[in-house]
Amino acid sequence: MKTMAVSLVALYVTGFALAGHAQPSTAQPPQGQQQYQGPIGADGKPMADNAANRTLLAQELLKVQSMDSIFADIIESMARSVPPNEQARLRSYMQKNLDVNSIRASAVQSLAKTFSVNELAAMVDFYGSDEGQSIQKKLGPYMTDLSPALQNVMQTAMANYRKQYPASGAQSTPAPSNAPAGAPGPPIRPRQ
């Protein structure tokens, strides 16, 4: 599960970098050309940057990004994080119990809240292109390849932090047995 968390961090970093490239250009057009007016709506006019248009483009983005393929990659990554004799059971369980519609609705809401109409349109154009589709397919293997190095660096940084600041944050020793009622106990550690 730790590898999955690191993979999701890598996805966030990669998505952030790609989103950064999707921002509309502020450069002036060459003389004689019109300034880019943003995506064009069904009425032939530039789309207004409003919640309805953002939601429409966010839904389109999830279509071109093939959310089902993304979920399949995430489930496969999760399956590789458990012992081989549990992988098939985990895959089956997640395929039956992962609430894809809820995640899809949350993704649409978050995309519409975070990105402008121009940014969403640029991402739809990018992920709808041959290059965008190719990159989308390669993100899973990329994250799998990057995860061990990222995990190692993060663990080293956290170990160094705890050495430098031993009394801050999580304590590694339990509270004394004579601690007053309601005093915090030892930190809860996730199962490995």
Protein described:
This protein is 65% helix and 0% strand. It has helices spanning 2-21, 51-64, 67-80, 84-97, 100-114, 117-128, 130-164. Residues 1-29 and 178-188 have low confidence and may be disordered. It is built from seven helices and no strands. It has a domain at 48-138. The termini are close together. The longest helix is centred in the last third of the chain and has 35 residues, at 130-164. Helix 1 crosses helix 7, helix 2 (51-64) runs parallel beside helix 6 (117-128) and helix 3 (67-80) packs antiparallel against helix 4 (84-97). The protein is extended, with a radius of gyration of 22 Å. It has 192 residues and is mostly helical.
Task: Give the secondary structure arrangement, pairings included.
Blueprint: H1 2-21, H2 51-64, H3 67-80, H4 84-97, H5 100-114, H6 117-128, H7 130-164
Helix pairs in contact: 1-7, 2-5, 2-6, 3-4, 6-7
Whole-angstrom Rg: 22 Å
Number of helical stretches of at least 4 residues = 7
- By DSSP, the count of extended strands is 0
Assign an overall shape. extended
Biggest β-sheet strands, sense, barrel: none
**Alpha-carbon distance between the two ends:** 8 Å
The helix/strand order is: HHHHHHH
Looking at this protein, list some descriptive labels.
single chain, 192 residues, mainly alpha, 0% strand, disordered N terminus
